[in-house]
Amino acid sequence: MSQAILWGLVAASPLFVGAVLALLRTWPPRWLGIVLGFGAGALMASIAFELWEEGLDLAGPIPLVAGVVLGALAYYLADRVLDARAAKSTDQGAGAPLALGALLDGIPEQLVLGIGLASGEPVSIALVVAIVVSNLPESIGSAADLLKGGMTKSRVLLLWAGIALICALATIAGFALASVTGDDFRAAAGGFAAGALLVMLVDSMVPDAQKKAKNVTGLATVLGFALAAGLSLAG
């Protein structure tokens, strides 16, 4: 269990650290767009080389595809709720969908991490770096947009601390549930994270990056993809 607590905190901490970095300085829109584009590429690599590929190896296409559909629907419906709230409030801005995506991605992803730890699977340094590469830009971009939208610094920190804590607890929950779950559950959980991320990337993260960084977005996205894919394959 101590391993699950340690790695749960390590995997979730970039979410909070990114929010702190957004508070420490004002990020120019172009740089923020580059960070978002880089993070989007890293998340694409995570979907392709970790969530999707591992899900197929574990249980085949059916549990994986079912998870992808459920994850996509969960993000879509939750984002519609956020849109309705945003129409009545001025303190969310473009950062709220990214925060939602981080939550819907982090919970199932870290559940799977906890289950793997309970099964005796080693955690590679390359995997940890890949998690940082994908999560850090996501939280920086979201926190910066939330601040620009009028949310107070204390609320932004509290929001991302809560998301990081929930994701860390998911690792512990996965460790505890390992004995009653199988490969089908792990594949479906990974698929859920992939589905939520794909909708978030298309609807929010990539358009926001393109709006801020213009023609540099594509290059930043490819660099993020290349680095995260290389780390995933190395791990």
Would you give an account of this structure?
- The protein has 235 residues and is mostly helical.
- It has one domain (2-22, 36-234).
- Helix content is 86%, strand content 0%.
- It contains eight helices and no strands.
- The longest helix is centred in the first third of the chain and has 31 residues, at 29-59.
- The chain is globular and about 45 Å long.
- The model has no long low-confidence stretch (mean pLDDT 89).
Topology:
Elements: H1 2-24, H2 29-59, H3 61-86, H4 95-118, H5 125-148, H6 153-177, H7 183-213, H8 217-234
Helix content: over 70%
Computed over alpha carbons, the radius of gyration is 17 Å
**Pattern of helices and strands:** HHHHHHHH
Number of β-strand runs: 0
Low-confidence stretches: none
The domain count comes to 1
- Into which percentage range does the β-strand content fall? under 5%
Largest beta-sheet details? none
Mean pLDDT: 89
Q: Structural class of the helix and strand makeup?
A: mainly alpha
User: What is the tally of helical segments?
Assistant: 8
**Overall 3D geometry?**
globular
Could you give the distance between the termini? 23 Å
